[in-house]
Specification:
The protein is an alpha+beta fold. The longest helix has about 40 residues. The termini are far apart.
Length: about 210
């Protein structure tokens, strides 16, 4: 093969290598650009955030044009967030709350509702991890209907409102466990069928004993 043919072959191979390098470089830059676009897109705050936080609390997430806290329905697909709003208290609980709230206010106290049992008591130290998990599982999903507290959020008494559902065997076992756990931990605890007079008498006894 003469030198002219060899030179042509070398030139062709050089052009192919250069073309391959350019193709690889462009593909790499394209992938990098696409990755950056994906990251920037996912770093943006979701549009529905502006409906979640009042402007005076999280102004950095709010479009300045929103001057008040709007009510927005169907912000995202229910397939992603399959939830709906529910009332905090049943009708019976709300009726009872109104009665004991008046009693509490007259004594300079306040009524709290739906307190998680695990926020009121904790499992003692010194148990094995397995034992701790067993005892914590008994309180993590339970709650107390009402708590009466002073202005410093010290619990004066806890109150459970009983209805017909508390007559079931499983509810009786649950109520006994809750009562024993709370009283052992040092709380005043009253179970009532809805008598505000019973609550007032019980509360007066506690306050007179404290004084």
């Amino acid at each position: 093969m003469d030198s002219g043919a060899t030179g042509v072959i070398i030139l062709i191979w050089t052009l192919l290598v250069v073309a391959a390098v350019l193709k690889y470089t462009r593909a790499k830059e394209k992938r990098k650009k696409k990755t950056n676009q994906y990251r920037n897109k996912n770093q943006k705050q979701p549009e529905y955030i502006q409906y979640i936080y009042p402007p005076n609390i999280y102004p950095q997430y709010i479009n300045p044009q929103y001057q008040q806290y709007p009510v927005q329905q169907n912000i995202v697909s229910p397939n992603i967030f399959p939830y709906h709003k529910k009332e905090l208290l049943t009708k019976n609980e709300y009726y009872f709350y109104k009665k004991i709230n008046q009693i509490a206010n007259e004594k300079g106290l306040q009524v709290l509702t739906k307190i998680r049992l695990a926020d009121l008591i904790d499992v003692n130290q010194g148990l094995t991890k397995q034992e701790w998990n067993v005892y914590f599982s008994k309180i993590k999903s339970k709650h107390i209907d009402f708590a009466i507290a002073d202005s410093n959020m010290n619990i004066i008494t806890l109150i459970e409102l009983n209805d017909s559902s508390h007559e079931r065997i499983d509810r009786i076992e649950r109520d006994n466990f809750v009562a024993n756990a709370l009283r052992t931990a040092g709380y005043n605890f009253l179970m009532t069928e809805g008598s505000s007079e019973q609550v007032e008498t019980y509360l007066n006894n506690i306050l007179s004993y404290k004084s």
